[in-house]
Structures are given as C-alpha cells and as structure tokens.
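Student: Please help interpret what follows.
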Amino acid sequence: MSTADFKVVLLGSEDVGKTSLMKRYVSDRYHSRPHNNTIGAAFSSKKITSRGRDIVIGIWDTAGSERYYAMSQLYYRDAKAAVVCFDLTERVTFDRAKQWVTELRNQEENCKIFLCGTKKDVIDEGIKPRAVPPEKVLQYSKGIGAQFLETSSKTGENIGALFQIVADSCELPMQKQETIQLQTLKKKNNCC
C-alpha cells in the first residue's frame, strides 16, 4: 500500500468538502474558490505520532459523484478507517452518508468509521442554517459505533483532532523490530 502504515478513505457526496478537508490536514492550506470535482480518487499522506510511534497515514479522497460510485469501492478496499463526510447545512448529504456507511459495512466490515460534519464555519458565520440536529447525528453515530466530529476546512477547526483520533483508534501492525524482540523473548523463556 505505497509508503503508508495504514489507509484512510474519505467518503461522502459530491461537494461536501472532502478535498478541502484533506488539503487542510496534509498541507494546512485552504482555497476559497471551488475545487474541480475529484475523478476517481486522489492520494496524499502525512507523517504523525500516534501512541508514541511515528506513522504515515495514507489518505484517499474519493469522488462523491454517483457516476464514480462503483470506482470508489475499489479505493476503500483494505482501508483501516473511513471518514464519512456530510455537509452540516445540507440534509441530503447526511442521508447519503448513511448509504456510504451501509455500503462500507458490506464491503469492509472491519473498517472503523468516523462521521465528519463539514463546513461548520458556514453555520458559525450565519451564512446557512444547520440542516441536521447534532443530537440526530450523535444518535446515529452511536448506533453504528462511530465517532463524530464537526469540522471546518476554512478555519481548520477539528481537522487535526479528527485525523489524530483516527490514527489513535486504528491498530497498527507491529514493526519488524518489535516482532524480532518478541520472538527473542519467547525463545529465552522456552516458550512456544
């Protein structure tokens, strides 16, 4: 899986802000002009520290357009985590997020799911009202065993926290050196 320790996929409807979320996290940049729609998927990675270990998370930003739906399934294969995004000001994107969760559970049942409400700044600035009450999202996230955060790619609010929670929640395979040390300990103790 290239140079990443584990794979995270960003899923959600078109125009919910997945690309902005990834760009803000990876390079701490935000562009107010609209992005071109993602075709297929875009990949980026970032090195962080999680549970005392330096790791690299590979982030796949998938296309949200219906016409790329079948292709998106290829990108979340073997993902350790999925960040399912929806626009806090557009109810239809929350309904679509539920469909992404169902599809993901059918394809990758061991993949951890994180719900991400995007564009919190739009609500905070009074540009648009909230379309989905937080209580409803929390109830849904609890029901599927997911964590939920509201984010803003424009201000950077909760972006780093989201990916830190994802990294800290995913079990990583032991590094080769740790495996060798465990094998040495077993031999010294005449165990297995």
User: Anything to note?
Assistant: The domain at 6-170 is CATH 3.40.50.300 (Rossmann fold).
